[in-house]
Write a structure and sequence with these properties.
Translation Initiation Factor IF3; 5-stranded mixed sheet; about 120 residues; alpha+beta
C-alpha cells in the first residue's frame, strides 16, 4: 500500500526545516531604525562652537542562523552624546553601513548618526 500523503508531508517538513535554518530564524535579537525626528538649529540654542559628534549602533549576523545587536537611532544618538549626555543632538545626518563577507556568512550593519551637540 502506497502512502503518498506521508511522503509529501515528510518532504514539506524537511523543506520547512531547511528554510528555517537558512533564514536567520534560529536566533534573532536585533533592533533597527524606523524613523527619527531631530532638532534643527532653530529648536536649540545653536552656536558655532557646538561640536560635531558621531555615534553608531550595529547589528551582527553569522552563518544566516544567528543575529544580535542594536542598530537603532536611540543607541547611535546616545553614543554620539556620550561626552555631553545633557546635550541635544541637532542638524542630524544618518547613514547605514553594511559589511558582509562570503555571501553573508558574516554581516555587520551599522546606523551612523552625525550631528551637532547643543543645548535647549
Amino acid at each position: 500500500m502506497k502512502m503518498p500523503f506521508l511522503k509529501n508531508t515528510a518532504a514539506f517538513i524537511a523543506l520547512a526545516l531547511l528554510a528555517t535554518g537558512f533564514s536567520g530564524c534560529l536566533y534573532t535579537n536585533t533592533y533597527a531604525p524606523d524613523s527619527y525626528r531631530s532638532a534643527t538649529p532653530i529648536d536649540v540654542k545653536a552656536a558655532i562652537s557646538d561640536p560635531v559628534v558621531s555615534g553608531e549602533g550595529c547589528t551582527y549576523s553569522v552563518l544566516w542562523l544567528v543575529s544580535w545587536g542594536n542598530s537603532g537611532y536611540a543607541i547611535a544618538t546616545q553614543r554620539a552624546l556620550k561626552t555631553n549626555p545633557q546635550g541635544v543632538l541637532y542638524d542630524v545626518k544618518s547613514d547605514l553601513k553594511v559589511t558582509s563577507y562570503l555571501l553573508g556568512l558574516w554581516t555587520r550593519a551599522c546606523t551612523i548618526v552625525t550631528g551637532r551637540s547643543g543645548h535647549v
